[in-house]
């Protein structure tokens, strides 16, 4: 970056912040991308002529709607929901739905923005979007969740379609919720089409989609290590979360000989020095996917430590995989990771690392696998689910897994081809941002002023 690039970045961010006040997560996500691509913008007249930066940071469309549903005590409840259709330059809008009490427009804009470049990196024809609601699934009965999903789809169905916008799961939206959502879509439209991904295997879902984000993140870590002549076998990892991404990251780490020492939820983390392996991992899956219980139950059952209201980043290990939520690694956590000589941090969650923490990790020589690249396996297999739905066929688990591995390897190569070494490690963040950005920007230039 030249001095002028820094000035241009500063000026651009001031304008973006003015146009989008009180949206700190969105600002953070945009800053991270624009910082990487500023030299490319400086050197590419066509991007400047086409006002690419201004256009690519403005969502195509935001849909806001009320969701009215009835709880088990016959009270009428009201939630707010959104679909942020960020950019469809390279394919139909694609991205998950999040149900969490913290969901707001800021969160969904940052996620939709990131999704645009992540989807571009997969090499599949998918635009970027994100949606969700401030509905809090915690403590709700199955019937309440069903009624909420049906009510949400009653409005959402107007805005989606297999060639328009194809939502999927994210925090608080898994197989159960996608089943309810798809059922309501089918009932209202009288058509069976691939308008959602992450569906159940008996109704159009893809083998391997549930596992894809976690497995993909570990495949990405494997690529990072292989590139420098190392491997996962005999190593240790700290993982946060115990949801969809975390569980299957832990599963793949074990398969590759790497022991996971921690898992967490919003109540704290468990530390199992013998590793979350075998039947202990089966127990954790059952606890979280079926019983929807709290993480301390793992510690109670297996006699290991539970740390209430804490995150696992001070536990010593070779690798860190944040797989819970945004901004879960702060400056003090990054300092602990550097002090413990963590070799690589791979983001399973979206934007789990704060901007300040990122600087400390980079200066500390920790190889950083950014979310856009590292957790793209989930949406990549969603893309494969779309292909299977369109062809009306179902690939085997082995076929899907092979394609997932190829896609993660290809993303790693794209990152290498668009980056350089910083503080002795490959700058995967810059590589991912530039590679993801270029494809979308080229399409936008081709379309002219629209
Ligand atoms: N499900 C998917 O295919 C993909 C998910 N992601 C990202 O991965 C992350 C996790 O998503 P999933 O595993 O799908 O969700 P999930 O709902 O299955 O699990 C989320 C986990 O994070 C924990 N968590 C949530 N909010 C938290 C908070 N404020 N503090 C501490 N812990 C918290 C929950 O307790 C749970 O263990 C999110 O950042 C999501 O955007 C990224 C790519 C694809
Ligand atoms: O599978 C999808 O369409 C979206 C997954 C997702 O929400 C993400 O990559 O963050």
TrEMBL record:
Domain of life: Bacteria
Keywords: Oxidoreductase
InterPro entries in alphabetical order: Aminoacid_DH-like_N_sf, Glu/Leu/Phe/Val/Trp_DH, Glu/Leu/Phe/Val/Trp_DH_C, Glu/Leu/Phe/Val/Trp_DH_dimer, Glu/Leu/Phe/Val_DH_AS, Glu_DH, Glu_Leu_Phe_Val_DH, NAD(P)-bd_dom_sf
Keyword Oxidoreductase in record: yes
GO molecular function: glutamate dehydrogenase (NADP+) activity
Span of domain Glutamate/phenylalanine/leucine/valine/L-tryptophan dehydrogenase C-terminal: 206-448
Subunit architecture: Homohexamer.
Family: Belongs to the Glu/Leu/Phe/Val dehydrogenases family.
Protein name (record): Glutamate dehydrogenase
């Amino acid at each position: 970056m030249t001095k002028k690039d820094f000035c241009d970045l500063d000026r651009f961010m001031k304008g973006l912040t003015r146009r989008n006040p009180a949206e700190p997560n969105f600002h953070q996500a945009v800053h991270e991308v624009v910082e990487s691509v500023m030299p490319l913008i400086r050197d590419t007249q066509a991007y400047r002529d086409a006002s690419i930066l201004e256009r690519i940071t403005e969502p195509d469309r935001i849909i806001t709607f009320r969701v009215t549903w009835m709880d088990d005590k016959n009270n009428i409840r009201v939630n707010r929901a959104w679909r942020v259709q960020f950019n469809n330059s390279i394919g139909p809008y694609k991205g998950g739905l999040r149900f969490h009490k913290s969901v707001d427009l800021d969160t969904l804009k940052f996620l939709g923005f990131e999704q645009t470049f992540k989807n571009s990196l997969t090499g599949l024809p998918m635009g970027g979007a994100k949606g969700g609601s401030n509905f809090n699934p915690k403590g709700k009965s199955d019937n309440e969740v069903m009624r909420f999903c049906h009510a949400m789809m009653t409005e959402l169905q107007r805005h989606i379609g297999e060639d328009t916008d194809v939502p999927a799961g994210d925090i608080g939206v898994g197989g159960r919720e996608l089943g309810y959502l798809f059922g309501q879509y089918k009932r209202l439209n009288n058509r069976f089409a691939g308008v959602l991904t992450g569906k159940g295997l008996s109704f159009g879902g893809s083998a391997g989609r549930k596992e894809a984000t976690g497995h993909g993140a570990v495949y990405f870590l494997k690529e990072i290590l292989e590139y420098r002549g190392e491997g996962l076998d005999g190593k240790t990892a700290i993982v946060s979360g115990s949801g969809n991404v975390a569980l299957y990251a832990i599963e793949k780490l074990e398969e590759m000989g790497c022991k996971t020492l921690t898992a967490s939820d919003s109540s704290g983390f468990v530390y199992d020095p013998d590793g979350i392996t075998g039947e202990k991992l089966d127990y954790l899956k059952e606890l979280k996917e079926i019983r929807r219980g709290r993480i301390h139950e793992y510690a109670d059952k297996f006699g290991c430590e539970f740390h209430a209201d804490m995150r696992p980043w001070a536990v010593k290990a070779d690798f860190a995989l944040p797989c819970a939520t945004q901004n879960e690694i702060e400056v003090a956590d990054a300092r602990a990771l550097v002090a413990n000589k963590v070799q690589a941090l791979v983001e399973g969650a979206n934007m789990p690392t704060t901007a300040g923490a990122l600087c400390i990790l980079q200066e500390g020589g920790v190889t950083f696998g950014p979310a856009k690249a590292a957790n793209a396996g989930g949406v990549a297999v969603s893309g494969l689910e779309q292909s299977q739905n369109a062809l009306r066929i179902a690939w085997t688990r082995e076929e899907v897994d092979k394609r997932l591995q190829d896609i993660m390897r290809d993303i790693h190569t794209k990152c290498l081809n668009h980056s350089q070494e910083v503080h002795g490690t490959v700058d995967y963040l810059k590589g991912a941002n530039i590679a993801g950005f270029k494809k979308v920007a080229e399409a936008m230039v081709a379309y002219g002023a629209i």
